[in-house]
Amino acid sequence: MRRSLRLKVALGLFAAAIMLLVTQAVAVRALAEAQEERLIEAIIADDMHDLLEAYRADPGLLPPVDPRLGVRVSRERGVRVALPPSAASLSPGVHEIMDGRHEVHVAVAMFGRERLFRLYDFGPYEQQFRDGMNLLLAGTALFVLPAIWLAYALSGILVRQVAGLAQQVRALRAGTASSIDSSRYDEREVAELGEAVNDYHRRMEAMVEREKEFAANVSHELRTPLTAIRTSCELLEPVADSLGAKPRQRLRQIEQAAADMHALTDCLLALAREDAAEPSAPVGLEAAVQATFERFSDRLERQAVRWVSAVPPDARVEADASALGIVLSNLVDNALRHTRAGTIRCSWNAGTLCIEDTGSGIAPDALPHIFERHYRAAPDGFGIGLALVKRICDRYGWRIEVESGVGSGTRVRLGLAEVKEDKA
Prior knowledge:
The protein has helices at residues 5-57, 123-141, 144-158, 160-174, 188-236, 245-273, 285-295, 297-302, 321-337, 385-396, and strands at 65-66, 71-75, 93-99, 102-111, 114-120, 281-284, 306-310, 316-319, 343-349, 352-357, 399-404, 410-415, 417-418.
């Protein structure tokens, strides 16, 4: 499912806002921790300076020597931590030693030839600092909900003109508007997009108009020779009996081919013009299937293909007879193309006409493309017949499904609206 542009913009703004808030919180915490360490070092430096001055003034105030470390150890009030033996090697300066989960600062200074250790416990102050920072982070988290609302509101403002353009394009497509009014947009990119759509729409209208005119001219030019062929066949009918069986059959085939070409021309013209579908009427399905197979009687005989119709005589469907005939002809033609010395069977069941063959079948990778015009997965390909079938089915709302496998034949299901007989 496609997401709206506004939702994507809102998510982007929200993500950017959260990243900025998190970055700010982390930076503030890191800066505050660095400032805390500098402050502690400054306090220790001042205290050690005063302490050393006091010891110089009165050496009797010097702390005793710790027998484990061999150095004099002074403790700030309240510090009861015992230094580990490894602390004896500490160099002058300020060090941090962990006593379990408790952090102790140790200042080492030289007093004459002796090293003097002084222990500080800033744990209560550091705990207050951590509590303050946690409170700051919690306060930052409170901005998440306002950030969501603000991001969604800003996204609406940012995509407002794009949404307006989309509404105008829908109106243009529906035919309720002739062009897009680009003057409504003060954003240069949106206005340029509107002008591009207008230009594309004008070109498409001109192209469609040319195609309609061309299709109408071609249809008129084709109808004239087709009418002449059919008229000539009708004039020959009175003398057909004297021509023999074979010429009479050829004459009927010519007449039927001319009628089929006339119907195909009308159908192609309607598809090219995108005219509304012809009104449907009840059509005898068995007669339509029978007529289709009769058109291919010569090919059936040459290829040694047997055809079987299991369509009930009373089956009737709502359809345009010409369009249905074109669809059936192309489906049977495709079945004959891929069937040699086999069977083609038509059956009807609950609104579905099934055309099955015992031919070579269609490869799985080619099956999704069979309705594409001129798609060629094999030397004989599929031509434009199945593409035309799909266009007609889409026009009339007929469902068409194809099942096939290499070597297992092909099954085509055509969904048609069944005419229910009134038994009252």
